[in-house]
Structures are given as structure tokens and as C-alpha cells.
Amino acid sequence: MNLLKPILLLFLFMLSTQCQQEKAPEAVVSKRPDPHSFSRPDEAVTKHLDLNLKVDFDQKILSGFARWTISAKDSATTIVFDTRDLNIQKVTLGAAEKETTWTLAEPHPIFGSALTVRIEPKTEMVSIYYATRPEAAALGWMDPAQTASKKLPFLFTQGQAILTRTWIPCQDSPGIRVTYNAAIQTPSGMMAVMSAENPQQQSSDGKYTFRMAQPIPPYLIALAVGELAFQPVGNRTGVYAEPKVLPDAAWEFADMEKMLVAAESLYGPYAWGRYDLVVLPPGFPFGGMENPRLTFATPTVITHDRALVSLVAHELAHSWSGNLVTNATWNDFWLNEGFTVYFERRIMEALYGKDYTHMLALLEYGELQNELEDLGATNPDTRLKLDLENRDPDEGVTTIAYQKGALFLHFLEEKVGRNKFDAFLKQYFKAHEFQTMTTEKFLEYLKTNLPETAGMEATIREWILEPGLPDNAPKPESNRLSKAESAALGTLPSRLQTARWTSHEWVHYILHLPDTLDAAALGKVDQAFNFTRSGNAEILCVWYEKAIRQGYSPQILPQIETFLVEVGRRRFLTPIYKAFKESGQVETARQIFEKAKNGYHSVSRNSIEELLKNG
Ligand code: BES
Ligand code: ZN
Which residues contact residue 226 at a Cβ distance below 8 angstroms, ignoring those fewer than 6 apart? Predict the structure, then answer.
């Protein structure tokens, strides 16, 4: 008896979706401007979103509706949205919510299914009622055990590059900008925060409303829900974290306001109002994500010595490069990340000086060299302008866009002088605020607005369109790291020598320890400096990699395993799993991965799965 009612309801529901669902997907009638989105914005484009969702931690489902304000050509009969793994219930038109027909195309494993909705000549509003699935790739559903308090679960979203479509039906292209309002219902005792105007206190009923008044691309729509509290660190800056983490987080990020001021004095006013940061559980797959007004960050940057705060400078810099001026498609990803790394270094230099910034730049130059070696210097993916058509844009997320991109800007700065280059960049951001940018458009703009680059066309084309690194690439130098490097090649350095070392010198030191050191020798180094017990994940990452490759890992396997189970940041996981694989210990890696994978976000899980597949 009790069972009958839900079954009957389900049947009626299926029947109703069947009626509304047309049969064949329609033929593409106009060219899609973005190879990673099914939408056809030249016919009908989204302008504003009203999002209304309930967060169900038990079922790991978000459900509710996305109400889109659209702008369509008179001739348009349909509007196309991107979706992936969504359960669509019904679609209505206008304030009267008249039901309309729609089709969901056969799913593509990476791009998902085009949702084609029939519209009427004057349609301005389309409401899509839907629910996400527990496996939605954007969503990180963390169990209480994966949080700091171990009491309540946690949810975060990760939209970049094309994952927003797994939790919101949208036109998921960075070339399309929308404003949004949202109403989010959470369980009690939790706070929801978004890339929008945020609450600073928990509500009593678990209801939260949000407003993002500036137009942003859908990959920047973001939500985090957990046991969060807020602490200001400056006038316009503050930190959200679990109460247990909050005091440490606020101390670690005390320089946020100064960074904001430095950034503004370089490249013009901050366009987004407040700049806050939320510390997520360690399962977050990235170091940081530049969601507007609210950077999402890994807790692994909290090292109690502010050693890794360049990450904040980086995500803050995206408030200009990326969020204000956005890559038009993922083929132009270097316009987001290369500019941001350059800008990040300028902020770091303003706050902490040249010596310090040169250390960071040289460490990253080493990462670029390794990437070039891995990919091969003639690999087309080592070009700045990428060709990711029919591929997952995640394949374009390499150090090339970041480091080769930044080096190109350093190169231009060297050629034209810092003053001219700064004036150019400031004007570039102003002229294109809230717009999208292609590599070609940037080159045009460079030509007209930085006339000092006249005569450099051939070399600029080489930088952008050719693989590998041009011969004229500037090579960073760092005295402080040179000293660490010599120390690594000699006998164990004395306390006196290392007394003022930051974690960057230690990382460099570990990287340069000779390949010939065996397990016993590495054991002595560990005894002297306690690397295995370091509280700095950057040190742990290079140390574990070294240990695995040089036979010392059996002695410290429990610690390596704990790290891989607790931390989900892909940039740490990849080198460690890879070291196991490349040193004949793939079985060990697989065993650890089996234990760890349920705690990983899909972004990390998929990458490591791929890595461990063969060999
Ligand atoms: N926007 C990126 C993260 C990203 C890129 C997510 C591409 C998905 C696709 C973010 O700004 C970033 O670069 N994060 C870095 C940290 C930074 C200090 C280099 C990271 O997570 O390691
Ligand atoms: Zn970035």
C-alpha cells in the first residue's frame, strides 16, 4: 500500500516527461562559436539567471529550477542549453509558466547533452525544473569525515572549464556572460556562500539569497555549503572557513587587503565590491579557484608561516585577467592564466620584494621545463593558442598556458619597459572589462596600443603559434635558490646556513638532491630535516616524489598514503602517483588510489584513473 503511491507518482512523472520530450534532436542550423558548448548564442542567448535550489546531503542531489532571462532573434524557434547528467523535469515559458516542449540529445561523454527548448516569438523567460545526479562532475560532496570538524558534510562546486552544466542547465561557454540571483536552501547549522554578495552569518532557517550584479561567464557560478563562519581581515576582505580552521585561516591570509590595494594600483580599480576567500576541505581538486568576489581555496595553503599566499595573489589577479576580461574559448586559456601568473608576480613583488618573487618565478620555470620535456618541445599542446576542438578542455590545463604565457608577458615588459607595459595592461583591462578576448583580438590590440612592439611581429607570432619555448625567452634567476641548490649538492647544510630558508628554498633543495642518493642517504636527510613530518604540502609533494623514485618510500609509506587519502589537490596527486608508476610500483599506487578515490573530486579522480590505466 505504502509503496504504491510513489510508484504511481513516478509513473505519472515519467509519462509527463515523455509527452513533453520530442523525438529527434534538431539539426544544427548555425555555427557554434565555441567548440565546447552546444549553445547557439547568435540565435538565442541567456542574459540573467534566477537559480533556486535545495541542497540534499543525504541523497547528494540539488533540485529546483533555473529561470533564465533570454534574448532571442525574432526568427528563433528554439534556445539551446548545455546539460550533462541532469534530470530535467519540465520546462516552462514566461511568467505564466506555460509548459513547452524540449529535447535532450544523446549524451556526449565530455560535452553532455544539448537541451533544445522550443520558444515562442516573444519569449523572454525560460524556467527549467531539474535535479542533479549524485555523480555530477562539478559537485564535491564531502562526508563529515573529510571536514575539519568531522561533524557536518560539505559541498563545493567547481565549474571551470565545462562542469557548470552538470549542476545548472546553462549556455556553458566563457564567451557568454550572465548576471544571477540565487535562493539556496541548506540544512540547518550550515551556511551557503556563492560567487556573489554573501551572508556573513548563519541564517536560522537555512535559507540564503544571493546577487551577482556584474555579468560573468557560467564557469564562475559557484556554491559552497558547510559549517562556515566569517572573519574580516580588512575593509573589503575576509575569510570564510569552518570554525575550527577560521583563526588560522584569518592569520594566514592577513595580507589580502594589501594585495587588493597593490593590485588596484597596478591595473585599475577592483570591479567586484568585496574580495573574500573560502577555505574548503582538503578534497578540493585545485589550489584555488577565482570565483568572483569569493576565491575558493585548498586548506593546504595554510602552513602557519604564510609561505604559500602567492595563491591568493594569483586568484585575486584573476579578478582582472579572467573574470573582467575572459578567454572567449578554452583555446585562449593562456589569456586567463598567463596574464594572471604575470600579474600575481607583480603583486608579490609589490608586497614582498624582488628576491622573494624571483624564487617563485624560478621554481615555476623548472615546472615549465619539466612539462616541455614531458610533452616534447614540438607537441602542438605547447603552443599558447591551443586547438582543443573535440577534446576535453581540461587537456589544455598544463603549465604551458601559465608559465609560457607569463614569460611572454615578461618578455614584452623587458622589450618595451615596465612603465609603458603597465600603462598598456591597465588600459587593456579597462577597454575590455566584462568582455571576452581571443588571442587574435589581443594581438591586434597589442599592435595598435603598444607601438613599441612594431618590428617584433615574427617573434610574437612564434611565441603564440609555435610549440616549445622561443630562444629569446627570459630565464628567471634567483640568488637565494642558487644557494639552496649548491647546498643540495654538498654535504648536509648546517643550521646556520638554513636558518632563514623559506619553504621555497627547501623545495628547491629537495629537487636538487642528487639522483644517486639511495634509501639510506635519504633517510639521513629526513632525520636531519624532518621532511616527512613537514606541515607544508609543497615540501611533502616533492619529498614524497623523490622518496618514491629513489627507493626510500617503503620506510614512509603510511605517511605517503595518509597524504594521498586526505589531500585531493590534483597538482600534488599527479606527481606522486606518477612517481609510483614510473618506478615499477604501479600496484602500490593502485591500492592507495582504491582507498582514496571516493574522497576525490571527479577532476582529480579522472586524472589519476587515466594515469594508472596502463603500465
Ligand atoms: N583557474 C585556475 C584553476 C583551474 C584551471 C580550474 C582550469 C579548472 C580548469 C586557478 O586560478 C589556478 O590556476 N589555480 C592554481 C593555483 C595557482 C596559484 C597557480 C592551482 O589550483 O594549482
Ligand atoms: Zn589561475
Answer: 142, 147, 152, 153, 154, 155, 156, 190, 191, 242, 281
Residues 158 and 37 in one domain: yes
pTM score of the predicted model = 0.95
Residue 486 resides in a domain: no
Q: How far is the CA of 287 from the centre of ligand 1 (A)?
A: 6
Check if the beta carbon of residue 151 is closer than 8 Å to that of residue 227: yes
368 and 469 share one domain: yes
Give per-residue pLDDT as tens, 163-221: 999 999 999 999 999 999 999 999 999 999 999 999 999 999 999 999 999 999 999 99
User: Does residue 396 have its Cβ closer than 6 Å to ligand 1?
Assistant: no
Distance from the CA of 254 to the center of ligand 2, in angstroms?
21
Q: Are residues 255 and 388 in the same domain?
A: no
* Ligand 1 contact, 601 CB (< 6 A): no
> Is residue 66 located within the same domain as residue 203?
yes
The answer to the question of residue 302 being in a domain is yes
Each residue's pLDDT tens digit, 137-171: 999 999 999 999 999 999 999 999 999 999 999 99
- Tell me the residue range of the domain where 302 lies: 235-319
Instruction: Give yes or no for residue 603 CB within 6 A of ligand 1.
Output: no
For the Cβ of 55 lying below 6 angstroms from any atom of ligand 1, the answer is no
Compute, in angstroms, the gap from residue 259 CA to the centroid of ligand 2.
Answer: 16
Active site amino acids: 315, 402
Q: What is the CA radius of gyration of the chain?
A: 25
Rounded Cα gap, residues 412 and 338, in angstroms: 13
- For residue 161, is the peptide bond before it cis, meaning its omega torsion is within 30 degrees of 0? yes
